[in-house]
Amino acid sequence: MDRIDALLRLVMCRGIGPLRGKEIIERCGDPAALFALDARALEARTGLPPPLASRLLDPALARAAQRERAEAARRGVALVPAGDPRYPPLLAHAPAHPLILWVWGEPVPRDVPAVAVIGTRRASAYGRRQAVRLVRELAAYDLPIVSGLARGIDGIAHEEALRAGTRTIAVLGSGIARLYPPEHAALAGRIARAGAVLSELPLFTAPRAYHFPRRNRIIAGLSIGVLVIEGGTRSGTMITARHAAEQGRLVFAVPGPVDSCNASGVNALLRDGAVLTTSAEDILAEFGDLYPLLKARRRVSALPPLSPLEEAVLGAIPPGPVAPDAAAAALGRPLADVMGAITALELKGRLHRSGNALERLA
Length: 362
What we know:
By secondary structure, this protein is an alpha/beta fold. The protein has three domains: 1-66, DNA polymerase, domain 1 (Orthogonal Bundle), CATH 1.10.150; 115-296, Rossmann fold (3-Layer(aba) Sandwich); 308-360, Arc Repressor Mutant, subunit A (Orthogonal Bundle), CATH 1.10.10.10. The chain has helices at residues 3-12, 18-28, 31-34, 39-46, 50-56, 59-75, 89-92, 125-139, 153-164, 185-194, 211-221, 236-246, 264-271, 280-284, 290-296, 308-315, 324-331, 335-347; strands spanning 78-81, 100-105, 115-119, 145-147, 168-171, 196-199, 225-229, 250-253, 275-276, 351-354, 357-360. It has a nine-stranded mixed β-sheet with strand order 1-2-6-5-4-3-7-8-9, with helices on both faces. Strands 10-11 form a two-stranded antiparallel ribbon. α1 crosses α6 (59-75).
């Protein structure tokens, strides 16, 4: 049995979470040596209660771990244990870091700091605009963007990072074979080709409510700082911000309207000492000696060019939501003539469509 087999059995054993698993390894050293013990010796060595020690030594668990490893290899998903050179170094220093990561794609480069960009699933037009703008600005410095693949701000952060040609890392609250939300499956595939999709959960683990708060500590742990764009006071976004503060990471927050429930958590973070953020420069300025190095590598990022019709359609859309037919009417052209331009503007990250409403993003 090698280290990965042993760690898989620890991780997949019901009742042994990251903290207990870490304690077992700290107490016993090589995890593979545990499985050479009988139940009584295992109890004495680890302090586990008898039912849990028996469960850990169950041959069925060993078979399940072997199947998991074979299926991961079949799907091109790497199993990266803590201590492996590919394991993200910042995460390795976070408390309760995963003993093993399921990695689809390439892990975070060791020499480039990543920034997490997170926020509400129910993003407003204001929140979407700020997410697009700030991710584009961060991408100009080739900073990897970490987020949670969720609807709303997370999805926008990943999309804009991909459009800008910078790496992005998605951290799941499910197994990689059970991507959530399902409508982001295609996005996850694109992320895996240009970055990585990570999980601490076995491949076929379904998304559960309690997985996502645990997932948020990984988002914080992978990042040198966490940028919060919209979030209520009792939201998963605030849980991630709390994990970041507890791990000694910087917390950045985009101020929002005082009468918006989407801004209540963000404004509370600002009251409690988060860095008020209106541009990527506000983030980089907090990185100390890294700041001049990052400034030196800044590249000019240009928005994708627009055709004359796309320019006209974008100019016809006022601030705030508008129906596509209203935009067509403002141009004096049939809706069928402008729908192609509207789709192109969506793909270029200049428009967001929700139902029958369009909103300008840039």
